[in-house]
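Dataset card, provenance and construction

Sequences and ligand SMILES were collected as paired inputs. For each pair, a complete structure of the chain with the small molecule in place was predicted and serialized as structure tokens. The example below shows a pair involving adenosine-5'-diphosphate. Curators did not alter the output after generation; any descriptive sentences attached to a record were derived from the structure itself.
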Amino acid sequence: MVEKNEIQARLPQAFKGLAQGRLEKHSGKVRDWYSLGEEQRLLVTTDRLSAFDRVVGVVPWKGQVLNELSAWWNRQSADIVANHLLSIPDPNVSVVKLASPLPVEVIVRGYITGVTSTALWRRYSEGERKIYGYSFPEGLKKNQRLPEPIITPTTKALPGFHDERLTIAEVVERGHLQRKIWDRVMEISLALFARGSQIAAEAGLILVDTKYEFGLARDGSLMLIDEIHTPDSSRFWKAESYQDRVEKGLEPELFDKEFVRLRYAEAGYRGDGELPLLPDSVWAETALLYQKAYELLTGGTFKPGSYPVESRLLANLAREGIEL
Ligand SMILES: Nc1ncnc2c1ncn2[C@@H]1O[C@H](COP(=O)(O)OP(=O)(O)O)[C@@H](O)[C@H]1O
Ligand SMILES: [Mg+2]
């Protein structure tokens, strides 16, 4: 772990992404990527943090946490589904098998929570009782556990657009996926969520909800891509204090990106318009939460890579014969 003071001092050096080099750079909100031949992709995970469908700030060492934690989970779940990971030449970089991504993101939820427009609690608190095709009874409390995990798919939105909510039936009805593959994707997703929940429980955490992305490899086989069970793609709560805090109407102790969303909500932000400014301490505290999640889940110590990231990363790639 890195001390809070050091994290805060590193804020100006947080890794926002590499400068444009020889190879064409493509950018998502959090990752940049480069084509390595026809079958591989170099995924660079930056320290950018996205919330409300845009990049809102940077969190030192977050890129490394996501990259290494995802790799760890890939190893814990390889018996359930094949994944894209080939190698990790730098703490912030993965070399992966190139996939044709499926056009649907699979969100699995074990609890009713969340403040964003697609979140169950937000919809429920605004009066909806049929959400993503599921019927919800009256009287649910925020952060309550659902009788069983549910799948709430969304389309994979183009940059600048919000993801569109779908029911599990609409994924097939609207022609996003064929029934056979969607059934398999759902089955795998629930199995991954069960595995994730079990491992999280052993670490004293609750895996609240998460998002999976899948793709087809060149040979047509299904594989897990992107990231898995990270504090960006998932919510994690502390198991020990959960029950007591929910009964008292308090938020659970959390180890994920919801921390930032809640700070924005407290500052009056509801999802549209200009974002209020948050103090540096919020970004440093977010970094600590991510590192803590890494350490609790993996049972290992987080070994921070040296900063600034760019020079280190390029040197590590050069050692592998990769020049960007
Ligand atoms: N193995 C892969 N093959 C092809 N695309 C991938 C693979 N792994 C991840 N991706 C895609 O790379 C991008 C990762 O960048 P990210 O910043 O996470 O994007 P986003 O802003 O959409 O979340 C995503 O669009 C994801 O779908
Ligand atoms: Mg992403």
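Derived descriptions for this record:
The CA atoms of residues 138 and 243 lie 20 Å apart.
The radius of gyration is 19 Å.
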